[in-house]
Amino acid sequence: MSAVLLLFSIVFVLPLAIHGDLRVGFYQETCPLAEAITRGTVFAATVLNPGIVPGLVRLHFHDCFVRGCDGSILLDSPTEAEGDTAEKDSPLNGASLRGLEVLDDVKAQLEIACPGTVSCADILAFAARDAASFAGIPYYEVPSGRLDGRISLADEVPHNLPMPFYNLSTLANLFASKGLNLEDLVVLSGAHSMGRAHCPSFHYRLYHFSPTQPQDPSLDPSYANYLKSICPPTVKPLGESSAVPLDAISSNMMTNTFYVALTQHKGLLGTDQLLMSSLPTRKMVRRLAHSPHLWPKMFAEAMVKVGRLTTNEPGEVRKYCRSING
Ligand code: HEM
Ligand SMILES: *[C@@H]1O[C@H](CO)[C@@H](O)[C@H](O)[C@H]1NC(C)=O
């Protein structure tokens, strides 16, 4: 009887507990400098390359939406011969990811300070928080204790990450499938108050929106002309395309100007502008556009929620963030 119970608890209860019980200060005893080393390293890197700031916030989101926050976005495809099989090599990620090197740097330092202790998934969660805080989001505590997964599949990316041409119901359904509601969707989309998008991500809005309207009517005409001056009718692969700021008003810091831009029909991504197309989301956008202090706080809370997405797969603390152990 007790053997059965023990077996049950090892097989079922234990893995769930490890993944579910994230807590603030998880490394306080085992690696007290983990968060400070991460923050210092991320800060130094962002001074040299500010693009790392949006890059890290997006990486954490892309990690958490595919298999939960398990560092699966950081794994390299196993071998050249097997092809681009890892999440990071999916076309949706690929050339547009930024900030991967700084995580390797943090990991290398933490393996010296406290070997085999701090997971890559946690490093990414800390780094995303730090990046956001350098961009103007209030510092928030990150519950930690995640384990790194051993699986990363490019094929799992398309149906788990939102695409910029989704309609609002598909987008809302995807977020709901991750336990995130409409308000989370509106608040998290504000991550697009910084960073950039390349022409292929919004090209259809300029040149082939619908059979009768080549240009998206929800796009401000002069903004559309500006975008056309940067993106020619012929699409090139993302890595060879030009990029423009996601926030048409103020793209350096994370501020509510992103929502102000939406009220002016200057959302760059189709999905962002669509937040103005339904009554409940439009009300939220207007509210956030009118109160500069509200959104940063709400964003911090929503990021903690995203950071709690988990899988029940067994995990490990990786030695290198780009490959599984052994
Ligand atoms: C709501 C659905 C979302 C869609 C459809 C979407 C899609 C995209 C696309 C297409 C890009 C530009 C890629 C490129 O052309 O280079 C982008 C960039 C970005 N996304 Fe999202 N995204 C969404 C939600 C989020 C969320 C929830 C976050 C974070 C909390 C986020 C953070 C970012 C950041 C920071 C960038 C800029 C990256 C950089 O400059 O390196 N996105 N997103
Ligand atoms: C949204 O897109 C999905 C998938 O393409 C489609 O099935 C659905 O009918 C669309 N909904 C609306 C309201 O256009």
3D structure, described in words:
The chain is mainly alpha-helical and 326 residues long. Helix content is 45%, strand content 2%. It has helices at residues 2-20, 34-48, 52-65, 100-113, 120-134, 168-177, 182-189, 203-207, 221-230, 257-263, 270-273, 279-290, 294-306; strands at residues 196-198, 243-245. Helix 2 (34-48) packs antiparallel against helix 4 (100-113). The chain is globular, with a radius of gyration of 20 Å. It has a two-stranded antiparallel ribbon. The chain folds into two domains: 3-161 and 306-310, Peroxidase, domain 1, CATH 1.10.520.10; 168-303, Peroxidase, domain 2 (Orthogonal Bundle). The site of 2-acetamido-2-deoxy-beta-D-glucopyranose (NAG) has 3 residues, from helix 6.
